[in-house]
Write the structure tokens for this entry.
Amino acid sequence: NVAQPSVAVAPGPVVQPCPGRIRHFKI
Amino acid sequence: VSPPNPGLGYRALNCDDPESEQAALVAMDYLNKNLFRGYKHTLNQIDKVKVWSRRPTGEVFEMEIDTLETTCHALDPTPVANCSVRSLGEHAVEGDCDFRVLKLDGQFTVLFAKCDSSPDSAEDLRKVCPDCPPLAQLNNTKVVHAVEAALTAFNTQTNGSYFQLVEVSRAQIAYRTRMTYVEFAIAATDCVAKEVTDPAKCNLLAEKQYGFCKGSFTEKGPVNGNEKVAVTCTVFPTQQLPVAAGVDDKEGNTAGEEPQPDNSPVATPPANLPEAPVGSGPLLV
């Protein structure tokens, strides 16, 4: 990504590697 | 200075990585194929994955997996993909599993499996369904009586073999309505149901035929003076079971069961079911 130094770049979404997605529901 | 055990470190893998999911599905398949009591479980969430390199070749996936109980009994040949997950209102049961899965030449093999199962809390059940009865102890006298009545009713009405009880797998008691709901597994014997005089003399068929029943028993009430029993059984085609082992919870009971007050031996198959393997092979605790 290229950004102007004066422009703040919003951090991207943090990817949580684990735990993974819930397929049904959590007890 | 060289790091200790060079090349033996692990790599973290995203829990939702296709490779993690592939290993988890192989692990779940292994689990369900080796269950002989309780209910089949389905994958709910991959908690942790570590991938260790193995010498001389291959990788070992060390995984923690959360599962949920389905409505298919372990002896039911229905593929787990076609089984419904037990709903929260039916008092859901979760499994907490540790697996080690070897990946060698693109093939996954389960090396180790250990699962504990536990029912959802009664508090959670009340939140989603205040009137739903919680799971009951399987040796509760009401449960035992309901199972006996349901099995007798089934054997009385069937024209084929006399069926013996294999295990009580689930029970709920609705005190307000005086109803006891039970689920249990049965097996066919060499006796004809309508001719049985002494069930103790009946033997299981050499080619095992199992079934699964859902029953309800209504006690006599002050107004309603009659007991009522209702039962529906599904008899499965004869099947060759794999040499089996158990999946036990922290209390020493199988998946899907309530903790029992008695100290039943851990991983002891019920009568009429194969014993756990002795010797080499994957370890299933």
Summary: Residues 1-5, 244-271, 275-285 of chain B have pLDDT under 50 and may be disordered. The longest helix of chain B spans residues 141-157. Chain B touches chain A at residues 12-16, 20-21, 42-49, 66, 68, 85, 88, 92, 94, 120, 124 (CB under 8 Å). Residues 75 and 272 of chain B are 12 Å apart (CA to CA).
